[in-house]
Design goal:
Helix content is 74%, strand content 0%. It is an all-alpha fold. The protein has a domain at 54-177. The radius of gyration is 18 Å and the shape is elongated.
């Protein structure tokens, strides 16, 4: 692993645990066993390091969102979307943890505002796809609840293993939550 990648890994862990504002370049340097100037050699600022660290996850979420907007919520694609969304959550737990927990307080940081906009677009897509309040709540609980549960499990001392059983269970539960409500 290169110093560049190592710095991103250390920074992401520190940003997720201590918060962006509570993290300094000096602290990241200490964790990586480098000098502050070495970190600044790779990244010109803490904001540039944050962009490099969480930007790829936002790119991935934006790509999921773009495909969802094109393909819609047909039953066939809904299952594929859920699988991709769950895989995204497992792969990007720390990044999503930052979006959920720090997004509202970091609106002036461009990369976090980009994440906030993407999450907002996702919520608006699901909200606009139905007029039924039950369905809107189900979408929020299925997507937001899953993201929150996976991304905060470690902090709540209820770690969830990223294995096939957990993945399958989550996809099944989300599918059940997203099943259309039948009017009586």
């Amino acid at each position: 692993m290169s110093s560049h990648e190592e710095l991103q890994r250390f920074a992401l862990a520190e940003f997720a645990s201590a918060g962006y504002t509570g993290t300094s370049i000096q602290r990241i340097a200490e964790l990586a066993g480098l000098s502050k100037s070495s970190v600044l050699y790779h990244f010109t600022s803490k904001e540039a390091l944050l962009e490099a660290t969480v930007g790829p996850a936002i790119d991935r979420l934006e790509a999921l969102m773009a495909e969802l907007e094109v393909r819609g919520l047909s039953p066939d694609y809904r299952n594929q979307f859920l699988e991709q969304f769950v895989d995204f959550l497992f792969d990007c737990r720390q990044e999503v943890h930052m979006f959920i927990n720090q997004g509202p307080s970091l609106q002036d940081v461009p990369v976090i505002e980009r994440a906030n906009n993407t999450v907002r677009n996702l919520a608006e897509f699901f909200s606009s796809s139905t007029a039924h309040p039950h369905d809107k709540m189900r979408f929020g609980i299925a997507l937001g609840g899953s993201a929150y549960m996976l991304c905060t499990a470690d902090n709540l001392a209820v770690p969830l293993e990223a294995n096939q059983d957990t993945r399958s269970a989550l996809i099944t539960i989300m599918s059940e939550l997203l099943a259309p409500v039948r009017s009586s």
